[in-house]
From TrEMBL:
<feature type="compositionally biased region" description="Basic and acidic residues">
    <location>
        <begin position="23"/>
        <end position="41"/>
    </location>
</feature>
<dbReference type="GO" id="GO:0006310">
    <property type="term" value="P:DNA recombination"/>
</dbReference>
<protein>
    <recommendedName>
        <fullName>Plasmid recombination enzyme</fullName>
    </recommendedName>
</protein>
<feature type="compositionally biased region" description="Basic and acidic residues">
    <location>
        <begin position="358"/>
        <end position="425"/>
    </location>
</feature>
<feature type="coiled-coil region">
    <location>
        <begin position="194"/>
        <end position="249"/>
    </location>
</feature>
<dbReference type="GO" id="GO:0003677">
    <property type="term" value="F:DNA binding"/>
</dbReference>
<feature type="region of interest" description="Disordered">
    <location>
        <begin position="17"/>
        <end position="41"/>
    </location>
</feature>
<dbReference type="Pfam" id="PF01076">
    <property type="entry name" value="Mob_Pre"/>
</dbReference>
<keyword id="KW-0175">Coiled coil</keyword>
<feature type="region of interest" description="Disordered">
    <location>
        <begin position="358"/>
        <end position="432"/>
    </location>
</feature>
<dbReference type="InterPro" id="IPR001668">
    <property type="entry name" value="Mob_Pre"/>
</dbReference>
Amino acid sequence: MSYLVLHMDKFKKEAVRGIQSHNNRERESHSNPDIDYERSGHNYDLHESASGNYAEAIQNRIDDLLLVKAVRKDAVHMCGLIVSSDSAFFEKLPPEETRRFFEESKAFLTEFVGAENVISAMVHMDEKTPHMHFLHVPVTPDGRLNAKEIYTRESLKKLQTELPRHLQSSGFDLQRGVEQEPGAKKKHLNTREFKQQQEALHSLEKETQAVNAELVQRQREESALQERLQSIERQAQEAEKMLSEQTDIPKASMLNFKSVLEAAQGIIEHQKKALAAKGIVDAQNEKLKADNEKLQAQAKELHDKVLGIELQHAEERQKINASIRSLNNTNQNLLARLEETEKFFRWNTDASMMRDEYEREQRQEAQRKAAEQKRLLEEIKQQERQQQADKERQAKELEQQKAAELERQRAEREQQRAQSLERRPRGMGMGR
């Protein structure tokens, strides 16, 4: 028996564009290896007025509500329901029945959320398991944008119970899936770990089916051997009967010697054939008994293997269910704590004032730290500018010193040359 997969997610405004890109295969994803883009042409949207721009369709629906208050920035703009089952379920369905399965699911969910709120019902056939992304704007019956009020614990339980009932009444053989609580994130197709666990379970189911098929074949072979054994045993019994029969040979005389001899030879030949048949039958019987014992041993081994796989399968499913329950409990605890905190601040004026004061102090502290950081950065820049000016001044002074030294050396050389000329004897000058 297969199980229905029904998973709910909530999306804020900033996530809508990414969901649209994924559903419509606007670009290839390198983070999802499960997508076979060669089969993406087989995907289809069951919503007749599906929009290629989710954000625009959502905003148009919100505008239609004529809300008095502005929509909060962190409000949930879109909810998504993933509908699917295991691979074994879809393998038994022809393409037209697979489409009917999603059409029936879409019709039921549309009635649940309201047709005017549906954005898309995209069916993906290019991943390992066919599934439908049913997207809608979370509008309450009285015209408010409120996902939390639509998907309460009770309403989601009811949805998870009534949808499989509807599908069963439509001729689909599947049961209610694992219960999922509102706010629980990514426990079905959107979680890599859960996908791997589901694939492992599917692999175990495939292995179980293969082993069961082999077991059936071995049982058929065993049955055929049993029939052959019974046939050979009947032949052996006939041969033993022939050997046990004592045929009287008439007394020989000169008159009937020839006929008595022929009769004796016939009896001997008959006995030889019986003995040979019995030997062959015995040999075949021993071989078939050995083959039968071997088959029985193989059948037992296969049966034990099936039991082991089924036990492993049950353990894996228990682990998954336990993990989901743990996540649900954790989420419920967090939601409860959050609700208690909100109630505390909502009804306790002093606490609310303390919270506001704390938040104000935090903002002031953040501003002070930012100003301090800015001042330090300015000081560092000023120091760097001063260091650069000092370097430039030192370089200029060094250049001036070098120039002065060169000038001094030149003056000394000139002075030495002049003194040398003064010391020369007058007669050594040029003659007239």
